[in-house]
Amino acid sequence: MQLLMKDAKATQRTLGKAPTKAGLVKSAHSLQAAGLLTDKEAEAIQLEIKERF
User: Fold this and answer.
1) Which of 9, 10, 23, 29 is 20–30 Å from 16 (CA)?
2) Are the C-beta atoms of 17 and 8 separated by less than 8 Å?
3) What is the tens place of the pLDDT at every residue in 11-39?
4) Contact yes or no for 26/42 (Cβ under 8 A)
5) Containing domain of residue 41, as a range?
6) Which of 40, 42, 15 is CA-nearest to residue 26?
7) Total domain count for the chain?
8) pTM, 2 dp
9) For the chain, how long is the longest CA-to-CA vector?
């Protein structure tokens, strides 16, 4: 989740707006595809995103 939040903060700085739910899910998929997250970690993050938004 820390990697995802760092990515979201970088996106916010770059674009000047808060990340969206879809953007966070996409970032989680990207981190998973890059091998930085396991399947279980990605699922847990996606559930947490759904709960927060």
Assistant:
1) 29
2) no
3) 777 777 777 888 888 888 888 888 888 88
4) no
5) 2-52
6) 42
7) 1
8) 0.63
9) 31
Around Cβ 28, how many Cβ atoms within 10 Å? 24
- Rounded to 5°, the CA angle 14-19-20 comes to 145
DSSP, collapsed to helix, strand or coil, labels residue 38 as coil
Residue 36 three-state SS: coil
Rounded CA-CA distance 53/41 in Å is 18
Nearest C-alpha neighbor of 46 from the set 19, 20, 28? 28
The tokens of 21 are what? 């739910």
Contact in structure between 45 and 1 (CB atoms under 8 Å): yes
Instruction: Write out the two tokens for 17.
Output: 């707006």
Give the model's pLDDT for residue 53: 74
